[in-house]
Structures are given as structure tokens and as C-alpha cells.
Amino acid sequence: MCRPAVVLAVLAACACSLPVPALGSVHLNYRPVIGVLAQENLEGDPHAQGSSYIAASYVKYLESAGARVVPIRINGTEEDYTKIFYAINGLLLPGGDVDLQKSQFSRMAKIFYELAIKANDAGDYFPIWGTCQGFQQLTVLTSNKNLLTLTNTKAVALPLVFSQGAQNTRMFKSFPKDLLLSLSEENITSNFHSWSLSVQNYTRNAKLKRFYKVLTTNTDGRKEFISTMEAYRYPFYAVQWHPEKSPFEWIDKPGMVHSVSAIRASFYTASFFVSEAMKNQHRFPTPQEEEKALIYNYMPVFKGLDSIFMQNYYFD
Ligand SMILES: *[C@@H]1O[C@H](CO)[C@@H](O)[C@H](O)[C@H]1NC(C)=O
Ligand SMILES: *[C@@H]1O[C@H](CO)[C@@H](O)[C@H](O)[C@H]1NC(C)=O
Ligand SMILES: *[C@@H]1O[C@H](CO)[C@@H](O)[C@H](O)[C@H]1NC(C)=O
Predict the structure, then answer these.
(1) How far apart are CA 186 and CA 228, in angstroms?
(2) Where in the sequence is the domain holding 114, given as residue range(s)?
(3) Based on the structure, what is the number of domains in the chain?
(4) Which of 69, 233, 235, 245 has its CB 3.0 to 4.6 Å from that of 127, i.e. a possible disulfide?
(5) What is d(CA 316, CA 309) in angstroms, rounded to the nearest whole number?
(6) Which one from 27, 132, 193, 282 is the annotated catalytic residue?
């Protein structure tokens, strides 16, 4: 390892307040593997096989930016999940519709969240991305409470309202200027949620306020809610909107956007998160174990163009 790189890395680590990455992790890992949590099947899903699923759009989203995906199945032991944690380079908490305090999804999310906090505190850089339900799950994990409130945001595309200085945050600083302009002016972020974290509840909760920086907000006309945030001291990121839908879901309803700028926004979020995962050096103990864990071992089921998730992977 050449010295200047080490010195630069240390300086960079001091400039921001993120955990100092281990010196060994100055090298980027160009074979990143990202875990995606499965969750209990939606009630009444006529295509369901087994008891849990992952929507294929999240897999494609990560693959499009240069990562491979490992599905993380429900009902495992804490020991199973700990083993997976030290084999993957980042975690994505997808959207969906489960209980944020009682489901298997929430149980898994808590185990991985706590492992990630511990790892980052020890200089082992481990990023987490939450989308929609994943965003909401992160708020529950950080505050240890459900502070969400109902909003009228079930199928609407909105322009992001950027907080002051958001363009210089870790997430957005690598976005092209014209894309940031599109995000702020065009209705290109897909919102499909009933629950939101209001700016009011965020502001009143010391744990959330200390932990996350608000990057963007939106409103349903009555309540202002947080649409994008990143943690101050951890590589944790959350969007209440759905960047993966624009390129990879085709249900024809309000809120769905397939414009060039919407698809660019999708790619830049994915590319940002995958570049974060490249800073992690976890790996499977053997190539055989890696091969066996990857999503390529499973086949997605086509549920129809008019399904909210067009293709799902199902698991026992
Ligand atoms: C997972 O555990 C839940 C209870 O937490 C149980 O209802 C369900 O049948 C289990 N699923 C599998 C696939 O074991
Ligand atoms: C704040 O959180 C509580 C749950 O603790 C919820 O009932 C309430 O609707 C929320 N209020 C707003 C304005 O978000
Ligand atoms: C576009 O966004 C605005 C909020 O800035 C919202 O009031 C409006 O309903 C949106 N339009 C569509 C077609 O989604």
C-alpha cells in the first residue's frame, strides 16, 4: 500500500465524521455483494410460493450499478445472519408491507442494523440503504419507536425539496448538477406509501435528530415529511421514494414515471450505494459458499405488468 493514499484516507476520515475506515479498506472492492432482505408474502398474492419474497426490481437496481445480490431469507437464526453479515458488503432494506416491529423482516433488520453499528464503530465500513418501508424500518430502529404518521402519498410523483446544503452531502455530491435540478423541478420521485416520518416528529425525537441529516422533504399538502436522509456518523441512507421503480416496474398508474431524468436519478442512487459497498472488504469464506448464496440460484416469477411488483423471487 502506498503511503500517500493512507495519509489521504486518514485526512478524509477526519474531515467528515464518518468512522475511520480500516487502513486495509482503502482499496475499493470491485466485486461487491449486497444483501437484500426477504419479507413475509403480501396477503392474497395469487403467485406466492413459499412464505417470503423479494421484488426483482431491487435486485436489478443493484445489479445495474455493478453489484451482485444475496437474498437474505426469513426465519434464520441470529448466528446465520451474523455469518451472512461478515460475507456481504452492504445491505438493502426494500419496500413492502409488513409490521415494522413484529415481522420477521423487522427482526432481521434489527439484527443487521446492530451488527452494522458495531462494525462501523470498529472501523469496518458497512453501508445500509432503506427504500420506502426500508426507510420507515430504519426510523423505527434508530428511535426504538414507531413515529410514523398517515399521509396521502399512495401513488404520486413529486419533486424533491432539497434542504440547505443537501447538494454537498455524501449522497448527492456525486450527482450531476442538471440531474439535481430535474429532481428539484420535475415530478420524478415515485411515492407509494401510506406512512411517513413527519418533519415534526423527526424534530421532536432527539435520537432521530442526532442520527440523521435531512436531505429532502415533501408534503402531501397537509403534512411535511422527510423523503431522503443520511446518517451523520454511519453510511446509512434512506429514501421514502422508489428509485428502483422507474426503470424496472411497469404497472400503469399515477406516480409511475419512466422519463429519462427519472431513470438517471434511479441509476445515480444505485451507483452511489454500490460505491459505498465497494469500501467494504467482507467476503464469503470460500468461492463455493459465495456461489451458493447468490440470487442467480433462484428464478423470479412474472406476476403480470399490472402487479405492483412485476416479478418476485419467492422463498420457503
Ligand atoms: C417463520 O416463522 C413464523 C413465525 O415467526 C412462522 O409463522 C412461519 O411459518 C415460519 N416460516 C417458515 C418458512 O419457517
Ligand atoms: C407522531 O408520532 C405519533 C406516534 O408516536 C403519531 O401518532 C403521530 O401521528 C405523529 N405525528 C406527526 C405529526 O407525525
Ligand atoms: C407534482 O408535484 C406537486 C408538488 O410539488 C404536486 O402537488 C402534484 O400533484 C404533482 N403532480 C403530479 C401529476 O403528480
Answers:
(1) 16
(2) 32-315
(3) 1
(4) 235
(5) 19
(6) 132
